[in-house]
């Protein structure tokens, strides 16, 4: 009579224990990563001549992957591949490799982020644990999802969105509910570890109060579609640059080297230094009503940085791109610029990652629940406009059968 509930309780307890371990590991690594990237950013800002090191930094990053991490340049797509195929273990060496090359990319001034790198660091540190435990393929998939949740929730400071992102990102159109408990536990534990260590997250402004009306409804929906097209443009441009590099430059380390040269020319000739790295000042300025930034510049520099082979991630650059696009759109329609900038940040991300639910929740966690309906509407519209094209090309698309199900 009590055997089934007891078995279920032991099963849940087992996964909670695994998730706590993954969360602790993810939180410790994320805390160190945040501090390291903050140091890299401050060092670059204090030494403007570091921009001339971009080609050398690119060469170091490229050589590191060519000689020490062959096959690991797939980045977060490797994790998604392994959730589905189980063809190879995520090696531990990806964790220090991504950590160090991301710091190098930032200190030289590439337009890159940190969330994608944090997912790989977390998975690289925990997938060998799955191997040592002898987990079967199904359980290993859940562990990888748990690692993604711990990495995202702890690096971005959004434990709810981090868990949902991990459940949502692996397959377009399906959430892995069997990983629900470990994903949430890992994400919350990782976030708590970072907080407990006294590492500060970026403080974002709260979204202004907006009364839902037909006018704001069509404006937000239209902007969501626009945000989706921006996301699609970013993905296509990044793919184009990556393909061009692969076609004409055989030696992998030369790709980020040439990308670094191109970035130096564009940034110095056009005065685009504010668009290096995370570009937090530009993002926060837009979210506070400023209109001085240009989203197309951030999009271009990020596409070149990622497409040529620099390391870090796209999440924060996409948040910045979306915020700048929102400020532009808001000024054109006569809306509240801060509102559109804040909504735009998560809408573009939703379109680029195919994770509208996680991005809407991310908006609520970062900017306040007052914007819930705005985040939801914009993220769904952006996801619709961008289609199934995203930065994670390894995402599977769930097939939905038509017709009534038999009962």
Describe this structure in words.
- This protein is an all-alpha fold.
- It has two domains: 10-196, Clc chloride channel (Orthogonal Bundle), CATH 1.10.3080; 214-386, Clc chloride channel (Orthogonal Bundle), CATH 1.10.3080.10.
- The chain has 16 helices and two strands.
- It has helices at residues 3-46, 54-68, 76-84, 94-108, 115-133, 137-156, 159-169, 180-196, 214-248, 254-270, 280-287, 295-308, 315-333, 337-353, 356-367, 372-386, and strands at residues 171-172, 396-397.
- It has a two-stranded parallel sheet.
- 54% of the residues are buried.
- Residues 400-407 have low confidence and may be disordered.
Which properties best describe this structure?
single chain; 407 residues; mainly alpha; Clc chloride channel; 16 helices; 1% strand; globular; disordered C terminus
List low-confidence stretches: 400-407
In round numbers, the mean pLDDT is 94
User: What is the 3D form?
Assistant: globular
Architecture of the largest domain, CATH level 2?
A: Orthogonal Bundle
The structural domain count equals 2
Text of the CATH class of the largest domain: Mainly Alpha
- The CATH superfamily of the largest domain appears as Clc chloride channel
Termini separation comes to 27 Å
Helix content: over 70%
The count of DSSP E runs of length 2 or more, i.e. the number of strands, is 2
Annotation field: number of helices: 16
Q: Biggest β-sheet, characterized?
A: 2 strands, parallel
Helix/strand order: HHHHHHHEHHHHHHHHHE
- What is the rounded Rg? 21 Å
């Amino acid at each position: 009579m009590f055997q089934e509930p007891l078995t279920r309780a032991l099963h849940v307890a087992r996964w909670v224990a695994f998730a706590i371990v993954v969360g602790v590991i993810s939180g410790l690594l994320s805390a160190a990563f945040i501090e390291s990237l903050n140091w890299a950013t401050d060092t670059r800002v204090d030494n403007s001549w570091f921009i001339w090191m971009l080609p050398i930094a690119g060469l170091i990053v490229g050589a590191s992957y060519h000689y020490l991490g062959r096959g690991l340049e797939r980045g977060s797509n490797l994790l998604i591949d392994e959730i589905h195929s189980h063809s190879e273990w995520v090696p531990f060496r990806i964790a220090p490799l991504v950590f160090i090359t991301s710091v190098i990319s930032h200190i030289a001034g590439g337009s890159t982020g940190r969330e994608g790198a944090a997912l790989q660091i977390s998975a690289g540190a925990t997938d060998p644990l799955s191997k040592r435990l002898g987990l079967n393929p199904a359980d290993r998939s859940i562990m990888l999802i748990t690692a993604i949740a711990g990495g995202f929730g702890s690096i971005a400071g959004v434990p709810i969105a981090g868990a949902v992102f991990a459940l949502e990102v692996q397959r377009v159109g399906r959430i892995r509910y069997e990983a629900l408990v470990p994903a949430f536990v890992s994400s919350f534990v990782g976030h708590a570890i970072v907080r407990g260590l006294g590492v500060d997250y970026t403080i974002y402004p709260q979204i202004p109060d907006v009364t839902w009306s037909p006018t704001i409804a069509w404006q937000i929906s239209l902007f969501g579609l626009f945000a989706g097209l921006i996301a699609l443009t970013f993905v296509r441009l990044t793919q184009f640059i990556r393909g061009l590099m692969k076609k004409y430059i055989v030696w992998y380390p030369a790709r980020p080297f040439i990308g670094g040269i191109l970035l130096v020319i564009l940034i110095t000739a056009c005065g685009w230094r504010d668009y290096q790295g995370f570009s937090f000042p530009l993002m926060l300025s837009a979210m506070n009503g400023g209109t001085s930034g240009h989203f197309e510049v951030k999009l271009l520099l990020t596409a070149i940085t990622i497409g040529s082979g620099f390391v870090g991630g796209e999440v924060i650059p996409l948040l910045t791109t979306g915020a700048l696009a929102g400020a532009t759109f808001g000024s054109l329609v006569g809306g509240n610029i801060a509102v559109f900038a804040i909504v735009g940040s998560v809408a573009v991300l939703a379109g680029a990652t195919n994770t509208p639910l996680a991005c809407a929740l991310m908006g609520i966690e970062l900017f306040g629940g007052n914007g819930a309906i705005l985040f939801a509407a914009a993220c769904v519209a952006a996801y619709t406009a961008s289609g199934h094209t995203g930065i994670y090309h390894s995402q599977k698309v769930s097939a939905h059968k038509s017709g009534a199900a038999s009962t």
